[in-house]
Structures are given as structure tokens and as C-alpha cells.
From TrEMBL:
UniProtKB keywords: Hydrolase, Signal
Pfam families: M20_dimer, Peptidase_M20
Keyword Hydrolase among UniProt keywords: yes
Domain Peptidase M20 dimerisation stretches: 235-325
Alphabetical list of InterPro entries matching this protein: Amidohydrolase (IPR017439), Bact_exopeptidase_dim_dom (IPR036264), Peptidase_M20 (IPR002933), Peptidase_M20_dimer (IPR011650)
Keyword match Hydrolase: yes
Signal peptide start and end residues: 1-29
Protein name: Amidohydrolase
Lineage per the UniProt record: Bacteria, Pseudomonadati, Pseudomonadota, Alphaproteobacteria, Hyphomicrobiales
Amino acid sequence: MARRTLNKWFLTAAATAMIAGMSLHMATAAPLAEAVERSSKAIEADTGRLIEMYKDIHQNPELGFMEKRTSAIVAKELEALGFEVKTGIGGTGVVGILKNGDGPTVMYRADMDANAVEEATGLPYASKVRVLRDDGTEVPVAHMCGHDAHVTWMLGMAKTMVAMKDAWSGTMVLVGQPAEEPITGAQAMIDAGMYDKYGVPKPDFFIGIHTAPGPVGMMMSSAGPKMAGTDQIDILFRGVGGHGSMPQMTKDPVVMASLAVLEYQAIVSRTVTPQETAVLTVGSVQAGADNNVIPATALLKANLRWYNPQVREQMIAGIKAVSNGIARTYGMPEDQLPVITMKGGSTPLVNDKALAERLAATMKGVIGDKNVVTEFPPATGSEDVHLLLGPYQDVPFDYMIVGVADPKVYADAVAKGLQFPYSAHNPNFVVDLKAIPFGTKIATVAMLDLLGKPAN
């Protein structure tokens, strides 16, 4: 979809959405329409509590696998609602299971971790948190990707669904997932035995929702490939350290790493077919501490994005060849070539066609055709949510997107020629508070659609 068409979708949503108490179109069939109307009223009555919950989570962000406080909130809320709660899955993962008669099992995920970004929004509830990482570095922490909203939406939906148990039948499985940002949390939960050891039932449907800096009042449910596969790779160049005044007595890993950063770019631009999606980014260069000391090592942290597994292999092979070639050029022996460490990764995210179309049709009946985007090109962002299916890759999955920007702020940005007012992971990322009840409604409507009782 061209940028102009995409902005047209979002601007239309911004102009037509009735955000605070959305006028439900109710083109959906009864009894779903009745259930949606009831849920809307319940969420509106619960909005004040949800906003305070959101602010609390926002002010207390936690990095991946450090989400002890957030996971405790999820566990406590779900236990109070009568869910069977399982904690500590893959470290800080939480699963709540609620059985309500016969019917399908629907899994829903909310990721819990924040970013190592210093918030600059100036909001009265802005994060001021800083933490020490395992490597001893101190970093700021803030929810600049909306995971705080994701958790709030899930817990708001859970309360609404429990209050409306007469309107649905089946089993809800709600997952509080750690460490989405490093793309390691979903796999950690699977590796910990989420299904076999912890007894989480296989879902019949699986859905997730993510924020986007489009206007509040719009959402997307789009079929097909949506997000790229990704890999996190560390490349450690080893050298011989020494005095900065005598470089001839050293083997400088800073120079090796610097050359590698530049040469990596040619892997994509000169070896990968232009028709293929391929991104190779070096997000961190770490070496040395003093002006006059050549260090013994230099660390590069790289990230790949891809859709075709062959392109992935091509980029990985290229990184190895470039790194080893540079090290050899600077005189490093074979047993001291760069150490390449594969860290977190994920396959491309693909939405099931039938499920995406079903939920899109339902949402159109609730919030109006113009507020539901059904066509969206594959992006180079990545997710690990679908890895939570583990061995059950045949389960229909749909990952929806919900706008969280103030519609006026969004429209003003577009008028200035910007695609969005801010991006995810930006210090100025803002979830407008009107998005809290709206996102909760979207989550609830999706669950009611998949679990709702058929008409008599």
C-alpha cells in the first residue's frame, strides 16, 4: 500500500471515529451485537480503573526477563477473576486459563517488556526508571512501544469477559509474555514447557494486538505475511591491545570492526537480489574506554530482517565472510578470528487469511468499514508472538494493529508531510489515554466473536 493510501486510511479513521464512547454500528449478527453492546458499556464503566492501571505500568517499566512487577500484576488480576494462573514460565511468563463450558480454546497474548530508551514525552506519568543490566551498564527504561497498553487491554478484556460469561462458551488462555523486544521471550516460554510441563491447552485460535502511531479509532486485521523474520547477532572482534601512540605493536579491533560495519552494507546492496526484502543494521559498537588505549576487543551488535530463509542464510554467511576476511587481513590467526553469536530470532509473521478476514468483518460491523484496514503491505518490523504456538503451527493466527495516537496529533503530522507523528521506540512515543478503552474494546470484541454462543 502506498504511503498516500495508508495515510488516507488513517485520516479517514481519525475523522470518523467517535473515540471516547464509540458509536457501535452493530451490523454484526445477534447475539454477538448484543454482547458487544454490553461489553462496551462495561468497558466504559471500567475506563477510569484501566487508565490508572496503564499509568502505573507505564511509570514502572521493566526490561525483558526483568518483568517481575508487571507479571505479578497480571497474575494477581487474573487470579482475582477466577483464572487458573501459571507463573514463572520461561522466567517471568504468566498464563491464565479460564474454562467456561464447551467451545473453542482461544489464546491471546500481551507482551510485558519495555525499551532501553529515555522517555522525553514530558507526561506527568512519564518513566524515570533506570536499571543496571547484567553487563554492568546503566540504561534508562520506558514503554516506548506500547506494551503497557497491551497488558492493560488484556486485563480489561479479561474482566469484561468474566462479567459476561453467559454470552460465551469455551476456554480463554491469556499469556503475559516476557522479552518480546530481544525476540527471545516466546521461545523461552516454549522451551520451558508451556504446553507439556505447565499444561497449557492447545488453542483453536490465537490472536494478539499491537499499538501503532495511527489515530485512535482505527484498527487493522490484514491477511498474509505482515512482519519480517529477524536475527540478533553479536560479532566480537579480537585483537591485540596496546598504547595508542604505538599502533604498530597492536592489532586494532576498533579498525576491524569499523571496516566491518561499512562492508556489511554491501552484503545487502551488492549480493542480495533487489526484489527480496533484506535489512542488515548494526545497532551498537562497543570498544575501549580511554582515548589513548587500543583495546583488545570490539563488539558489534547486528540485526537482520528477512522474509526468504535463503536471504537470511546469505546475510549470515556474508557477515561471517566479511568479518573473518578483515581479521585475517589485519594478521589475526585462525584461532583468534571473530566470535559470532546468534542470539534471539524469529520467523516471519503470517496472518491466517480466514481468521484475519473474519475478525475484520466483525470489527467493521462494530466500528465501521472506514475504520478497519484490511490491506497492508509486509513490514520489516518483527515479532515473536507466533512462536508461542510452539509445535502447533497449524493453529489459525491473527495479529491485529490498533491506533493509539491522538487523531489531531496524527492529522497535524500528516499535514506537515510526516507519515506518523512518532515511531515505536522513539523517546516521544505516546499512547493517548483514549486508546485504553478503545483497545480493550477491540480485544473484547475479538474474543466474543471467537467464543460467542451461536443464536438459538
